[in-house]
Specification:
6 helices; alpha+beta; 3-stranded antiparallel sheet
């Protein structure tokens, strides 16, 4: 028998109740899971890193990250739909920036794990 499995089934109902009361509801876990899936893409992380430094347009991001403008636009559309980035128009250009600096803080914390 494996040593990492309980050999005797006994429940500590006080512990179960305490933990159950302190855990978030499933909706919260779905939201967090969705965020981490979103941040699980290499190119999205690079885009967010660039936008942490400065507001940029698609053509600038394309040159900086050596990606096609259509790929950058696709990733930005996903990030915009999830409210991770925001944009503003200036004449014929569209500039993107982070909507919430806490996202980049989360990425930075990921570097140290």
């Amino acid at each position: 028998m494996s040593s990492d499995v309980c050999e005797i089934k006994s429940l500590r109902s006080d512990v179960l109740e305490k933990v159950s009361n302190e855990m978030e509801n499933n909706e919260v876990y779905e939201k967090v899971s969705s965020l981490f899936k979103l941040l699980g893409d290499y190119n999205r992380i690079r885009i967010l890193s660039a936008l942490e430094c400065s507001e940029m347009c698609v053509c600038e991001l394309s040159i900086l990250l050596d990606m096609s403008q259509s790929s950058i636009s696709h990733q930005l559309r996903i990030l915009r739909q999830k409210n991770i980035v925001k944009y503003r128009r200036e004449n014929k250009k569209v500039f993107y920036s982070l909507n919430n600096s806490q996202i980049y803080d989360l990425i930075k914390k990921g570097e140290s794990i």
